[in-house]
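Running this now, will post back.
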Amino acid sequence: MLEIIEYRGLEKDEIDISLFTCFNRYQDVKKCWRKESGEWILKEIAFTEQWGLNEFEYLIKCLQNTIETGGAVFGAFHNNVLVGFASVENQFFGSNKQYLQLSSIHTSYENRGMGIGKKLFSLACKRAKELGAKKLYISAHSSQETQSFYKVMGCVEAMEYNAKLVTEEPCDCQLEYSLFNKGQEVCVPWAVTSIRSVMTFVVYNILFIS
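Update: finished.
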């Protein structure tokens, strides 16, 4: 079965509650990483996350603010339905102003395992480089699955922690991704010179269904 996923930048005026009508932000967490006495330990911490209206309304405000302040929001669409999104802020921080934040990256529950998150991460990296960042900073969910994704992408523990983000989400893992180190940079699977909201990228994901 051939699945067509369209990736494009989003405009502020299209980010409303209707965009997320079919988006399922669900996660059944069994284990989480915690740093204790300087060592990372995978602990049995079980809970379920299921976003509702309040969470999506807050998300919409955040994503709109991202665009208003010069950042970027990318969406992944299947049959014109949003199945994934990512956002990059445009406020530099760090001792050398080297960081820009990957403030969100999510794939709808039913569409995970299709490589959507990896492609959104690639778009976010490219945009952060265009804005002048040396590193991408992620205050990431500490669940085993989420951390496995970032490890595959090449992220490591941040050399400098953002105190504000740590305070907001004390259980998150603070990560970074170097945008310039050879061998670590994520390759964008299409040739483009600039990412703009008016440009559209179509990627064909081939799924073999028994």
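The longest strand covers residues 39-50. More later if anyone needs it.
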